Amino acid sequence: MTDIAPLRHFVSGVSELLMTVPNDDAEVSPLVLQAITLQLKRLIEHDDWLPEPFTRPHPQRYRQYLLYADALQRFSVVSFVWGPGQTTPVHDHGVWGLIGMLRGAETSQRWTQGDTFSPVGDATHLLPGDIEWLLPQEGDIHQVSNAFDDRVSISIHVYGANIGAVKRNVFDETGQRKAFISGYDNRFIPNLWDLSDNVVHAQEETAHA
Amino acid sequence: MTDIAPLRHFVSGVSELLMTVPNDDAEVSPLVLQAITLQLKRLIEHDDWLPEPFTRPHPQRYRQYLLYADALQRFSVVSFVWGPGQTTPVHDHGVWGLIGMLRGAETSQRWTQGDTFSPVGDATHLLPGDIEWLLPQEGDIHQVSNAFDDRVSISIHVYGANIGAVKRNVFDETGQRKAFISGYDNRFIPNLWDLSDNVVHAQEETAHA
Ligand SMILES: [Fe+3]
Ligand SMILES: [Fe+3]
Ligand SMILES: [Mg+2]
């Protein structure tokens, strides 16, 4: 069984950071984002904590498993799982986002919007330990793909909202936008808060009950 | 499938209340506790939101399923499930607690500690919708039992800490105390944060995958 402690430490750390941000501040400062990035870096440094149910690919579509959402919906942590060759539509986010590569590799291609809807710059290639920022004010339209056509890739995303409930956009090849709300693919999220020694025994009982 | 919205509203409401409490205040004021009590009252008014995995009794022992814990461990929400005739040891809590009866009925017997270790007053009988307070400063040693010997009873508890990680005490018949940490019986907690329309479809896919 994986030890969920690194995710607990990340969630506690970000929550403590947000205690220092005024409640009415919709925007998080670059300094706070830097601090969250450092904590995310530590979280994805080792690939030994993500419970198996949140690593499962779907045969057709990429999966987005909520791992944690702040009760005031100020941030969320999501496990994105790409099966071989899977890709997202071109989409935006509307809030800040950090993508931390945990397992495998992915490419992220930015798109501009304006008179011409087109890819901008080279695709970013993310390897385990790498982090990419997405900021609405810098343009946050992109398309993400599994870099592998023969294995699963997983990245851990952190967003400045309950991302599964954010009304945002997907874009077709002409740049035509369509509103969407992603939701999540899981009804249950990890219990981060059992710090007792006997948790394994009790859980085994439950699993066998 | 149950609709988890009432629990989401409760968790959000308590979290918003705690935003008004100074960070360094270990004690929550009676006014804040009153406000939490009102919200708990609303939560347990209808027994239609608790997902089935958190209602399952164990043949030998009562179960404590974490439903939610605050990231700063300022409060937690737990589903206590008693099988027919099951009972807790005599125990304390060390933090404030609210017990809201959801299904069935239970009795709570207070104990004093001092020169003589003995039951104090009559047992409280809780029916659905009823709420009992536990405050360390008033003495919070008690024993809780399912009032039924032929059916399951469930109550929703709210505590002023991550209760499963609090070092507290159980007492034997002579009043001898023994330290314990309860932990929780579940590795997964409900995902409260999917507000999208398509959640049922996505979840059904996952369930069948
Ligand atoms: Fe994205
Ligand atoms: Fe108790
Ligand atoms: Mg346990």
UniProtKB/TrEMBL annotation, chains A, B:
GO MF entry, a single one: ferrous iron binding
Keyword Cytoplasm recorded: no
SUPFAM superfamilies assigned to the protein according to its UniProt record, in alphabetical order: RmlC-like cupins
This protein's record includes keyword Transmembrane helix: no
This protein's UniProt keywords: Dioxygenase, Iron, Metal-binding, Oxidoreductase
Transmembrane segments: none
Domain of life assignment: Bacteria
Binding residues for Fe cation: 91, 93, 142
Listed CDD domains: cupin_CDO (cd10548)
Family: Belongs to the cysteine dioxygenase family.
PANTHER family: CYSTEINE DIOXYGENASE, CYSTEINE DIOXYGENASE TYPE 1
Protein name: Predicted metal-dependent enzyme of the double-stranded beta helix superfamily
